[in-house]
Specification:
Number of helices: 2
Number of strands: 7
Order of helices and strands: HEEEHEEEE
Strand content: 25-35%
Distance between the termini: 31 Å
Structural class: alpha+beta
Strand order of the largest sheet: 1-7-6-5-4
Radius of gyration: 20 Å
Shape: elongated
C-alpha cells in the first residue's frame, strides 16, 4: 500500500498520467511447468463418447480458477512478459515494475495487485 501511495504522489507532483486496467481471465494465462504436475477429473457433463461410467483424469497444461497455485503461475507469466517488454522489477516490492528511457525522457511505472494494474507514465509532448 505504501508503494501505491508513493507512486501516486510522485505522479501528481510530476504531472504524470495515470491509468488502471483489470486483466480479464488473468489466472487462465498461467502456464504450468513440467516439474509441477496437476491432474483433475473430467468435469461433469463433458463425458467422452464411449467412456461413460469411466473416471477420466487429465493433466493440466494451463492454470484454472480455483487452483491455489493459479495466482503464483499468473504472476510468473506476468514477470516473464514485463521483462521481455524491457521493464525492471523493483527490489523492494516485487509487484512494482518500471521502465526508463533516457533518450525520450520517459518513465513508466506499473503497480500490480493480483489482476489489477495501475500504470503511471509521462506522455511525450
Amino acid at each position: 500500500m505504501a508503494y501505491i501511495q508513493t507512486v501516486l504522489a510522485f505522479a501528481a507532483f510530476e504531472d504524470y498520467e495515470t491509468s488502471q486496467i483489470n486483466i480479464k481471465a488473468a489466472y487462465l494465462n498461467g502456464e504450468l511447468t513440467k516439474d509441477k504436475v496437476i491432474h483433475m477429473k473430467q468435469a461433469p457433463g463433458y463425458e467422452e463418447h464411449g467412456a461413460e461410467g469411466k473416471v477420466l483424469v487429465y493433466r493440466l497444461k494451463k492454470s484454472l480458477y480455483g487452483l491455489k497455485q493459479a495466482v503464483r503461475w499468473w504472476y510468473h507469466k506476468l514477470v516473464e512478459i514485463m521483462i521481455k517488454l524491457g521493464f525492471e522489477r523493483c527490489e523492494r516490492d516485487q509487484a512494482v515494475f518500471f521502465r526508463r528511457c533516457e533518450e525520450m525522457n520517459m518513465l513508466i511505472i506499473v503497480l500490480v495487485h493480483v489482476d489489477d494494474c495501475t500504470i503511471v507514465g509521462k506522455i511525450q509532448s
